[in-house]
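Lecture 7 notes: from sequence to structure.
We start with the chain below.
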Amino acid sequence: MGTIAQRFESGEQKSNKGHFKNLVMLARVDGKIDIEERGLLNRIAKRLSLTSDQVQEILDHPENYPMIPPSSLEERFERFIQLVQMILVDGTIEPTEEKLIGKYGIALGFNEEQVQEYEAKIIQNLQNGMDRSEVLELFI
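Predicted structure tokens for the same chain:
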């Protein structure tokens, strides 16, 4: 049931790893993680304070990291925006990615209508050149 260190992690650390696992799963939808996806994963891992060993462990064993949604609305939007960034980074949105975004959005506490509305708004604003923090400002 995980390592001793995993058993004593804070809720925030577990939540960050679960979120990173979701990003990895989105990146792998097409069977591989391409260079753009890997770059975004690396940037997000740094923001989440994940070590290279932790990143590798999640890449190797994503099934060991459940999704634990953050409690604050701002953090939930932050996570959802990062998930949408991941599906946009390679320039193609796969139907499987759409399905996962819906699943993850609901797990973050949004209903189906909100997921669709927020995803469309996030995509539009990211494609129009807004960065992640500017998009987040629209929701909080």
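Points to note: Residues 11-27 form the longest helix (17 residues). The radius of gyration is 14 Å.
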